[in-house]
Amino acid sequence: MTDSSNSTSSTKKSAFITGASKGIGLSVARALIADGYAVTITSRNAAEIAQVATELGAGTRGVACDVKDPAAVQAEVDAHVQAFGGLDVLFVNAGVGHFGNIADLSIQQWQDVIDTNLSGAFYTVKAAIPALSKSGGYIFTLSSLAGKNPLPGGGAYNASKFGLNGLSEVMNLDLRDRGIKVTQIMPGSVATHFAGHTPDAEKDAWKIQPEDLAQLTVDLLHMPERTLPSRVEVRPSRPPKK
């Protein structure tokens, strides 16, 4: 684990974001910083997360952490609470995708997807519950429309996102008496680096942009306390005709 920290102890609100060296996680970090939050951002890539934390500036902790390791996740959540005096928002975003016919999908690929997208989400939430209970915090899980729509070659990914949706719905029931809100965000096609894609400003212009989901996150945080959009499906408004 590597910690690239620009943090100082503070009473301001704070957020812990997994998978935040690029794409959706990074856009959410930027939006929350602009909204007044201190943030911890994580990634498995130590060099990338250190560079991003430096770019984001004061009030940012950048740590290398693999969400498949529950002890590492717990240590980093505890360090966040120590650095910032608490935790208000958890954005569960770390994810991988291996795709292929179920007959050809390897056991290692299956385990990598399930252990990251589903078990990793559980480990992250489990580590954060005590701090979020104290703050009356908010958990966002970044799922997908693949969490309700099976696709050929999506055996592992579909299973992980169907499972994440179920986990998120149960978390809502189990944690609301602690004052914790849970929203699952389910986007369709997003212009990110996911699964080896290289975003192209022109070709991906029709897709959801990472900053769109970041804006959605901030908007949800500003909803009236009495109201909870527990599942938000997000689609490109004008996808190409097939």
Describe this structure in words.
It comes from Deinococcus indicus. GO terms for molecular function: oxidoreductase activity. This is Short-chain dehydrogenase. It holds the Pfam family adh_short. Belongs to the short-chain dehydrogenases/reductases (SDR) family. This protein has 242 residues and is an alpha/beta fold. The protein has a single domain, classed as NAD(P)-binding Rossmann-like Domain (Rossmann fold, 3-Layer(aba) Sandwich). 41% of the residues lie in helices and 16% in strands. An eight-stranded mixed beta sheet has the order 1-4-3-2-5-6-7-8, sandwiched between helices. Helix 1 links the parallel strand 2 and strand 3. Helix 1 packs across helix 6, helix 3 runs parallel beside helix 4 and helix 4 runs parallel beside helix 5. The longest helix is centred in the middle third of the chain and has 29 residues. The protein is globular. 43% of the residues are buried. The model has no long low-confidence stretch (mean pLDDT 93).
What's a concise summary of this model?
With 242 residues, the chain is of the alpha/beta class.
- Gyration radius, in Å: 17 Å
Are there runs of 5+ residues with pLDDT below 50, and where?
none
Query: What is the H/E string?
Result: EEHEHEHEHEHEHE
E-strand count: 8
Share of helical residues:
40-55%
Which fold name fills CATH's third level, the topology?
Rossmann fold
The class by helix and strand makeup works out as alpha/beta
Average pLDDT taken over every residue = 93
Strand content: 15-25%
In order across it, which strands form the biggest sheet?
Answer: 1-4-3-2-5-6-7-8
Q: CATH class, anyone?
A: Alpha Beta
**What's the end-to-end separation, in Å?**
45 Å
Described by strand count, sense and barrel closure, the largest sheet is: 8 strands, mixed
> How many domain modules?
1
Contiguous helical run count:
6
Protein name: Short-chain dehydrogenase
Domain Ketoreductase: 13-193
Pfam families: adh_short
InterPro entries: KR_dom (IPR057326), NAD(P)-bd_dom_sf (IPR036291), SDR_fam (IPR002347)
